[in-house]
Amino acid sequence: MTALTLTLIKTPATKLDCSHITPTNLAGLSLDAIKSLPLNAQKNAFKVADYFEVTGTDNNTIIFKNTHQHLDYIGYKISAGCIIIENDCGDFLGANMQGGCIICQGNVGHRTGDQMRRGLILIDGNAKDYVASRMIAGTIGINGNVGQHTGFGIKRGTLLLRHQPILMATWQDCGSHSLPFMKILSDSFKSLPSKFASLQISKVRKFAGELSVDGRAEMLIIE
Asked: Which of 7, 11, 63, 131 has the least C-beta neighbours within 10 A?
């Protein structure tokens, strides 16, 4: 089977809600049923086929092609499977994520991983403000730069970053470490279509936070 592929065929005039396009929501649906699926619960909502060409049969892996920042809520509440975005995407990527894997090969908007509870998000490009806001658990890796207020309200979970952001005062510097589990984490990335697959992580600078909430999350800056 080939991965279910959604190729954006026209630029939406406003932000497009893609929250319904997840492996769980599409499980067992035919190609025609997916094309007819409303993009949100509003009356007269646009259908998937109004903006996407849809091909492939494996609903457990969804690939977005020709995307850009107009596409919000990709991977919303995803609980299993994998979503791969071959270009940029908008706000709230992986919001309320329950499990599975999301890989963005471009840049992302604001509030990536908002209220994320489980799973893995890897971003090859840059991310805007409020990465991992109110995050409860899971792992987010960002290869590029991140915006302001990273980890705002985060309770637990791991942020793996290539570049140190401007930190809020509620993050505590724990120094540089050679953590044994980093090799295990690096090995888990090797089969994934992301720049993280080629990273050799041996040493990180660790920050603990967010102390105004719980203080049990970690931000690891690759050195």
From this structure: 11
pTM of the entire predicted model: 0.94
- Please enumerate in sequence order all residues whose Cβ is within 8 A of that of 52, keeping only pairs 6 or more positions apart, or say none: 6, 7, 8, 9
What would the two tokens of residue 5 be? 């592929």
- Report the distance separating Cα 40 and Cα 47, nearest Å: 8
Residue found by looking up tokens 């090969």 in the block: 105
- Report d(CA 30, CA 16) in Å as an integer: 23
**Cβ-proximal residues to 41 (8 Å cutoff; 6+ apart), any chain:** none
The per-residue pLDDT for 214 is 79
- Residue of 53, 64, 52 whose CA lies nearest to 23: 64
pLDDT in tens, 6-24: 999 998 888 999 999 999 9
Interatomic CA distance for residues 204 and 13, integer angstroms: 42
Q: How far is CA 28 from CA 46, 48, 53, 57, in A?
A: 21, 16, 19, 10
**CA-wise closest residue to 4 among 83, 103, 94:** 83
Low-confidence ranges of the chain (pLDDT < 50): none
Q: Which two tokens stand for residue 213?
A: 């909430």
